[in-house]
């Protein structure tokens, strides 16, 4: 017996078939529940893949509704100020397929969306996302291909929203201190 799975047949032999409802819950458009989930979510994880196969997952956040529902098949995600690595955006230029996981604090279930993104820089679109005189440099317009609610088992196992298990921030150095230690070269944590 091999120690690794090499084929889909081997994988399917290891796991039972998914229950019919697990497959049936996948929709091709946003229904009222999915729309509401997006409206309440202040945090989404964006997954992309570049032409060479490099995969990126990027956290995106803002006030609830940071991602707008433009229609039952269209989401708008502003690219708010970040580190300018542009990993996700470069991947989207090369391959438009994206995957999103929406989270709502205190809710164990998540919303998963698969689709295709394009990077919009039209001034009229950017203006609609302006907050306090700041606007994004671009907006992802995502055409929804599949959407489904995902059970909360992973978040329940992690007890992600349980304040009793929160890790004290002092358990890790500051981000600046960790990066300084990783790349050195005389940087201070503030830099």
UniProtKB/TrEMBL annotation:
Transmembrane segment boundaries: none
Protein's UniProt name: Pyridoxamine 5'-phosphate oxidase N-terminal domain-containing protein
Provenance organism: Rhodovibrio salinarum
Domain Pyridoxamine 5'-phosphate oxidase N-terminal: 31-151
Superkingdom of origin: Bacteria
InterPro entries given in the database record: Pyridox_Oxase_FMN-dep, Pyridox_Oxase_N, Split_barrel_FMN-bd
Pfam families according to UniProt: PNPOx_N
């Amino acid at each position: 017996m091999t120690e690794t799975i090499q084929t889909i047949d081997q994988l399917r032999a290891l796991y039972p078939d998914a229950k019919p409802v697990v497959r049936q819950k996948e929709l091709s458009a946003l229904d009222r529940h999915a729309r509401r989930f997006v409206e309440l979510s202040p945090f989404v994880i964006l997954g992309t893949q570049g032409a060479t196969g490099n995969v990126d997952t990027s956290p995106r956040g803002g006030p609830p509704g940071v991602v707008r529902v433009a229609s039952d098949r269209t989401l708008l995600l502003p690219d708010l100020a970040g580190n300018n690595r542009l990993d996700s955006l470069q991947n989207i230029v090369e391959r438009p397929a994206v995957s999103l996981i929406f989270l709502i604090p205190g809710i164990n279930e998540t919303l998963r969306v698969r689709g295709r993104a394009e990077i919009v820089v039209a001034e009229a679109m950017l203006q609609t996302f302006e907050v306090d005189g700041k606007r994004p440099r671009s907006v992802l317009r995502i055409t929804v291909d599949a959407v489904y609610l995902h059970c909360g088992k992973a978040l329940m196992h992690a007890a992600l929203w349980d304040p009793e298990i929160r890790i004290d921030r002092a358990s890790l150095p500051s981000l600046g201190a960790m990066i300084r230690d990783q790349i050195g070269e005389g940087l201070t944590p503030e830099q």
